[in-house]
């Protein structure tokens, strides 16, 4: 039996089934990419864009995109992960002793971020669909950096809780924008690798953040404390980076003034095979119904909850858990750095396996095994000696939304639902770490085991569902259905 390519399942949302004698009219593309059908265009009228791109030309175009877009996604996500990690690192900096009286108020400083993201998630996705994406992303980075720097002025629990909530509002744009950018700039087979590059900055911030955090602990004198210096430094740098993003990042391939008109034409053509459209500012109610009734949406949401609930809790309490084992500050930071390296290695190896096998869900299932093992070790290890205290676990979550969901309105709804689930898992995660259950937090880790069991069930079901969808599409193509076949990709840019 031939391998099942899960990422190959793509449904076109309401395709216009109209063959044309030669190529297709680019007006279909213009309706997808312009602000409205009546706006004055601020980019080239592309005419026919059905030309074939050679492998050499494709590599040249990808290198141009990588130089312009990929560094923005990677470093922006690194800064956002670093921003969120500052609170955990500041536990080792004696951050306002009043915040540390028990894990319960501390857990709310993490939970409030994701509640804020949860509230603004759909409005943010709607805005992403209607405004210049690069400018909106850059503006949010500037505002996020400003709020982070203001953390240094917090004097009590309510003030820092308010600042953390504002931080969540401005962080909400990052991941949805990156998924849209990935589908806009990159071919479907490239997107898993691209998403992995910026997502593995969760591990990068553990390594770099650990080093920087320890350096800041060496600040013993001065007008501000070490944790205040940490917030001001990270916040100021984020503001400067946001200004750079405003200047450097193109809003879309069609409006990228840094590329020639011919290159822009070819960049649009190279992603035709995605069959997921480009940025579209027209709302389509029928796609909302389609998204909500698609079982893929439910599966992606469950995967998001089952992966983020364990990782958010461990991320927020990592330093507390480690210091609970009587490690020094330096030892705590070194162990956190090891965890960051493990995250990067797992993400890189999993991406390599996906490229080699084409089996996304089997690889995801395989990488759940270390999560089971690591969590069981944390539940059962005896706190008697240093050797038995060095335990860790890791998780893998791989998004297939940008490749498998077609139609901009449908994609917006699915991304919103996915990130609502992502926020829900992240918000609940710190709350399962109960103060009276320290230092092993048996209840928290038992909850994590339950999440992994449910995750395996969802993975098996989703693989079965995608196989069924692939078989149905192949059957329609064999029977001559134009929409299922579409071998010339005539309808690729229809929304």
Q: What is the CATH level 1 assignment?
A: Mainly Alpha
Number of domains: 1
Q: What number is the mean pLDDT? A: 76
Radius of gyration, in Å, reads 23 Å
Main beta sheet, described?
A: none
Strand tally, please? 0
Characteristics:
mainly alpha, MFS transporter, 21 helices, about 500 residues, transmembrane, about 0% strand, disordered C terminus, Growth Hormone, Chain: A, globular, transport, MFS_trans_sf, MFS, about 70% helix
How would you characterize this protein structure?
It is a single chain. The N terminus and C terminus are likely disordered. Helix 4 runs parallel beside helix 6, helix 5 packs antiparallel against helix 10 and helix 12 crosses helix 19. The chain starts with 26 loop residues before the first helix and ends in a 10-residue tail after the last helix. The chain contains 21 helices and no strands. With 495 residues, the protein is an all-alpha fold. It has a single domain, classed as MFS general substrate transporter like domains (Growth Hormone, Chain: A), CATH 1.20.1250.20.
């Amino acid at each position: 039996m031939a391998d099942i390519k899960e990422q190959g399942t793509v449904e076109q949302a309401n395709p216009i089934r109209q063959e044309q004698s030669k190529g297709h009219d680019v007006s279909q593309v213009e309706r997808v990419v312009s602000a409205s059908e009546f706006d004055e265009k601020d980019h080239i009228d592309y005419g026919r864009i059905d030309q074939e791109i050679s492998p050499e030309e494709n590599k040249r175009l990808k290198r141009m995109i990588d130089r312009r877009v990929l560094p923005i996604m990677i470093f922006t996500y690194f800064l956002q992960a670093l921003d969120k990690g500052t609170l955990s690192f500041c536990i080792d900096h004696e951050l306002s002793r009043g915040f540390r009286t028990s894990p319960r108020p501390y857990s709310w400083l993490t939970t409030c971020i994701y509640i804020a993201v949860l509230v603004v998630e759909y409005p943010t996705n709607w805005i992403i669909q209607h405004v210049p994406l690069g400018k909106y992303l850059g503006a949010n980075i500037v505002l996020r950096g400003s709020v982070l720097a203001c953390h240094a002025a917090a004097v009590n629990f309510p003030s820092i809780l308010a600042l953390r909530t504002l931080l969540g509002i401005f962080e909400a744009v990052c991941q949805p924008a990156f998924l849209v950018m990935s589908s806009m700039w990159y071919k479907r087979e490239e997107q898993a690798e691209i998403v992995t590059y910026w997502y593995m900055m969760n591990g990068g911030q553990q390594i770099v953040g650990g080093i920087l955090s320890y350096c800041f602990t060496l600040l013993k004198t001065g007008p501000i404390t070490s944790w205040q210096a940490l917030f001001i430094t990270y916040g100021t740098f984020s503001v400067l980076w946001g200004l750079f993003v405003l200047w450097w990042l193109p809003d879309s391939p069609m409006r990228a003034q840094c590329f020639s008109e011919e290159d822009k034409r070819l960049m649009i053509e190279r992603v035709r095979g995605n069959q997921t459209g480009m940025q579209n500012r027209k709302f389509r109610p029928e796609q909302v119904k389609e998204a909500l009734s698609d079982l893929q949406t439910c599966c992606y949401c469950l995967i998001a909850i089952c992966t983020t609930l364990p990782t958010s809790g461990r991320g927020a309490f990592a330093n507390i858990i480690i210091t609970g084992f009587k490690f020094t500050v330096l030892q705590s930071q070194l162990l956190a750095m090891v965890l960051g390296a493990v995250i990067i290695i797992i993400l890189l190896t999993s991406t390599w396996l996906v490229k080699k096998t084409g089996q996304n869900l089997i690889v995801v299932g395989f990488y759940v095994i270390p999560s089971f093992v690591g969590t069981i070790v944390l539940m059962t290890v005896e706190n008697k000696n240093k050797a038995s205290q060095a335990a860790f676990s890791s998780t893998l979550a791989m998004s297939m939304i940008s490749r498998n969901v077609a139609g901009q309105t449908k994609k917006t709804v699915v991304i919103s639902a996915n990130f609502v689930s992502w926020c829900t898992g992240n918000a609940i995660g710190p709350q399962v770490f109960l103060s009276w259950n320290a230092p092993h937090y048996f209840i928290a880790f038992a909850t994590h085991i339950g999440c992994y069991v449910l995750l395996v069930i969802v993975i098996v079901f989703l693989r079965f569902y995608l196989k069924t969808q692939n078989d149905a599409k192949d059957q329609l193509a064999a029977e001559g259905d134009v929409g299922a076949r579409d071998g010339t990709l005539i309808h690729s840019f229809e929304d």
